[in-house]
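User: I'm curious whether this sequence folds into something compact or stays loose and floppy. Could you predict its structure so I can see for myself?
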Amino acid sequence: MTRQKIGENMINNIVGVWNNIATQSIALLNTSGGIWATMIVFLGSFFAPIGFMIYIILGLTVIDLALGFTVSLNGKREGESKEGFLSNKAKNSLLKLFFYVLFISLFYIIETAVIDGDGTCFSSKLIFAIMAGVEMWSIAANALIIYPNFPFLKLFKKFLSSEISKKLEIDKESVEDILNHKIDVIKENTNEILDNQKQ
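Assistant: Here's the prediction. I'll summarize afterward.
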């Protein structure tokens, strides 16, 4: 075979592959599942630079939701809360997550349209940091309610009292009493366990 024939065969093969890709793409886009898959892939690739922020916000929201469920169940069992609003908490967490992702995405879209799209995402990162801080604050309040003797969080007890009162649906003055009562109960339970182990 001459070089010219090899070159022609190579070009014909490449053209055949591209024709095949075009035919399969058109067939894919003729189905509703294919349209959705194409949209998801396109959006995923467009928002790839902020994907890590969305994953972290998702993780923080899920952790906050799990701790919130625990607080609601414990509060309902111990009589500290009026009732456990588990379905409302789940619905509120989903709405919160939707708006977090929406705001981060909108800031990213505006930033890529205004700035030359160099991938720095300053405003998106700022909004993400604020949202992550809010979630971390809520997680800290839930953790302090569940385990009031946690050494690190005891430093924030005074600052978290309004968040805790909101979560337990009590006045701010009662927060300190409830947390101190929980510490006493934990100490009693620990002493009981230690006494039982010695016997």
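Summary: Residues 86-114 form the longest helix (29 residues). Confidence is low (pLDDT under 50) at residues 77-84.
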